[in-house]
Amino acid sequence: MSPNSIILILVSIILTSGSQIVLKFGMMSESVQVALASRKTSEIALTIISSPFILVGLVCFGLSAIIWLFVLSRVPVSSAYPFVALGIFATTIFGHFIFNEPITFYKTIGLFLVLTGILLIGKVG
After folding, report:
1. Main-chain phi, psi angles of 101, to 5 degrees
2. Distance CA 69, CA 21 (A)
3. Residues 66-83, buried b or exposed e (16+ Cβ, 10 A)?
4. Less Cβ crowding at N or C end of the chain, within 10 Å?
5. Euclidean distance between CA atoms 121 and 15, whole angstroms
6. Arithmetic mean of pLDDT, 15-27
7. What are the pLDDT digits (tens) for 28-78?
8. At how many degrees (to 10) do helices 52-74 and 3-28 cross?
9. CA separation for the pair 61, 77 (Å, rounded)
C-alpha cells in the first residue's frame, strides 16, 4: 500500500471520527434537546437541519465518504476496510477526552483487540 493511500485512509478515518464528535455536540445543544423534548417531528427536523454543528458534522462525514471512494479505487477493499476500525478507537478516545465518557475495563480490552486485529490483518494481508 502506497504512502498516499495510507494518508487518504487516515484522513477519511479522522473525518469520520471527527464528524461523530461534532454531531454529538450538535445533538447535545440546548436547542436540539428542547426540540427533542417537544416530541414534534417537524420542530425536531427543522432544529436538527439548522444546527451548525450537525451541518458541519454531516459535511465532514460526506467528505470522508468521498475520500473513501478514492481509497477504494486504489486499494483492495480487504486491505483498506480493516482500517475503518481505527475510527472506533479514535472516537472512543475523543469521547473520553471531550465528553468525559468513561473508558471501562471492557472498553480498554475491546480497543486493544481492535488494534490487534488491525495489526494482524495489516501484517498478513
Report:
1. -75, 140
2. 22
3. ebbeebeeebeeeebebb
4. C
5. 23
6. 95
7. 999 999 999 999 999 999 999 999 999 999 999 999 999 999 999 999 888
8. 160
9. 19
Task: Tell me the residue range of the domain where 77 lies.
Answer: 3-124
* pLDDT score of 2: 83
In the chain, beta strands by DSSP E: none
Instruction: Using the structure block, give the residue that is written with the C-alpha cell 487516515.
Output: 10
Contact 44, 106 (CB under 8 A): no
With 0.85 as the threshold, say if the pTM is over it. Answer: no
Tally of domains in the chain: 1
Residue with cell 472512543: 92
Which among 104, 68, 73 is positioned nearest to 86, based on CA atoms? 68
Asked whether the beta carbons of 15 and 61 are under 8 A apart, the reply is yes
Q: How confident is the model at residue 124 (pLDDT cuts 50, 70, 90)?
A: low
Three-state secondary-structure class, residue 3 = helix
Cα 14 from Cα 9, distance rounded (Å):
9
